[in-house]
Amino acid sequence: MSRVLDTFLDLVRISSPTGRERGVAEYCEKALRDAGCSVRFDETQDTTGSDTGNVIATLPGSAPGVHIALSAHMDCVDPCEGVEPIVEGGVVRSAGDTVLGGDDKVGVAAILETIRRLSESGEPHVDMKVLLTVGEEQGLNGAKALARDDASADVCLVLDADGPIGGIVTSAPTHYTFEARFAGKAAHAGVEPENGISAIAMAADAIAHMELGRLDERTTANIGTIQGGSATNVVAPVCIVTGECRSRDRERVEEVRAGMDAALKDAAASHGGSVEISWVLAYEGFDVPADSPAVVVVESACEDIGVTSSRFATGGGSDGNVIAALGTPTVVLATGMTKVHTTDEELAVADLERLADLLVAVARRAVR
Fold first, then answer.
1. Taking the CA of residue 214 as centre, how many other CA atoms within 13 Å lie in the half-sphere pointing to its CB?
2. Would residue 75 show up in a list of annotated catalytic residues for this protein?
3. Which of the residues 75, 205, 244, 346 is marked catalytic?
4. Which three-class secondary structure string do you get for 305-318?
5. CB-based burial label for 135 (10 Å; 0-12, 13-18, 19+)
6. What pTM was estimated for this model as a whole?
7. CA–CA gap between residue 231 and residue 184 (Å, rounded)
8. Catalytic residue among 21, 104, 136, 162
9. CB contact at 8 A, 117 and 94
10. How far is CA 60 from CA 33, 63, 126, 277, 317, in A?
């Protein structure tokens, strides 16, 4: 078994649900220091509720060129405690009652292997920055707490997309979420319903007047939860609705958000009730042109190792959205992970090794 596989197996055996990433952080700190990096933890622990901060490391370079940052997140979705990885037929899976944790420990393992190889080879390389974040799975919280200087680089590669090695996410959406609290008036549903104002009816009316699902190639909208009412014989005085909209077109997402907001307010007014709406900009989108340095260096590195590159857009978000918003040219790379966030998650060993090869090739291409 290769070293990068050994590292991956070590990492997935360390439990790291969101908020409890310290074990992985300490493992990575030691590995990076042993490879010659300067390593520190930022102050993220104070703002995210995690038991550790983001890991910020730099491997000093010996050659000029494109300053590269490599990023992955250390937390995993539940159930991710007590993972027992099994390697069979060149594929890594969990024993079956947990996720594997490839999201995103495949990225972490590949980064550690890349830094080790560069350190050991003695060949000229540029400064390499490592950003290992906490709290990604519950709102990109670690990345959102990054200082602009910590995230700065000429190119940042975020290792957090599924699909075959060589995939490059060059477009991701802007994402809004909302919570709407409808307030009506309680009444006995069998005795005097006309004296009540149903908050649930308001919510239903609002939802009926929204465009939901896939609105166009770049845009989606969704209602996620509805909570309200206490008994069948009570006109519900309160109903809480949550939802979202996202689009890779910045103007379009504002248009959809305004439409959803108007539907919520109009429904409350037409029923004689009220609504309080809280919108949150979860993250900004990004679009990276095909001739950008980030895309060019990755596509060139893919050629170097005999991998076919492909550019694609996603409807999801990642730390890449946050780092790009800080002004760092950023793309998200496919890592070979499949069936993520399920107990059927798996990873081909060849993809893990190929990902490390790709990152080393990127570092070589970055030298000028």
1. 4
2. yes
3. 75
4. HCCCCEEEECCCCC
5. buried
6. 0.93
7. 15
8. 136
9. no
10. 12, 9, 7, 49, 30
Measured distance CA(52)–CA(21) in Å, rounded: 6
For 150, the token pair is 């910590």
160 annotated active-site: no
DSSP-based three-state secondary structure for 16: coil
- Rounded CA-CA distance 174/60 in Å is 35
- Residues 76 and 101: their CA atoms lie apart, in Å, by 6
Per-residue model confidence as pLDDT tens for the chain (368 residues):
599 999 999 999 999 999 999 999 999 999 999 999 999 999 988 889 999 999 999 999 999 999 999 999 999 999 999 999 999 999 999 998 999 999 999 999 999 999 999 999 999 999 999 999 999 999 999 999 999 999 999 999 999 999 999 999 999 999 999 999 999 999 999 999 999 999 999 999 999 999 999 999 999 999 999 999 999 999 999 999 999 999 999 999 999 999 999 999 999 999 999 999 999 999 999 999 999 999 999 999 999 999 999 999 999 999 999 999 999 999 999 999 999 999 999 999 999 999 999 999 999 999 98
Residues 204 and 239: their CA atoms lie apart, in Å, by 10
Query: Quick one: pLDDT at residue 205?
Result: 98
Tokens of 260: 């959803």
Please give the structure tokens belonging to residue 279: 């919108």
Q: Is there a cis peptide before residue 319, judged by omega within 30 degrees of 0?
A: no
DSSP, residue by residue, 142-170: HHHT--HHHH--SEEEEEEE-SSTTEEEE
